[in-house]
Amino acid sequence: MIPHKRVFHTFVALKNKFLKSIIMKDTALAKIHESMGARMVAFAGYNMPVTFEGINIEHETVRKGVGVFDVSHMGEFWVKGHKAFEFVQKVTTNDVAKLTNGRVQYTCFPNGKGGIVDDLLVYMIDEKTYLLVVNAANIDKDWEWCVSQNSMGADLYNASDEISQLAVQGPLALQAMQKLSDTPITDMEYYTFKKLKFAGVADIILSTTGYTGSGGCEIYMANKDAEKIYRAVLEAGEEFGIKPIGLAARDTLRLEMGFCLYGNDISDTTSPIEAGLGWITKFTEGNDFIDREFLQKLKEEGPVRRLRGFEMIDKGIPRQHYEICTSEGEVIGEVTSGTMAPFLHKAIGMGYINTGHNAFDSEVYIKIRNKLLKARIVRLPFYKNK
Amino acid sequence: MNIPDNLKYTKDHEWLKIDGDEALIGITEFAQKELGDIVFIEVETEGESLDAGEAFGTIEAVKTVSDLFMPIAAEVLEFNEELEANPEIVNKDPYGEGWIIKIKFADPSGLDELLDADSYKELVEA
Question: Is the pTM value of this prediction over 0.80?
Answer without folding.
Answer: yes
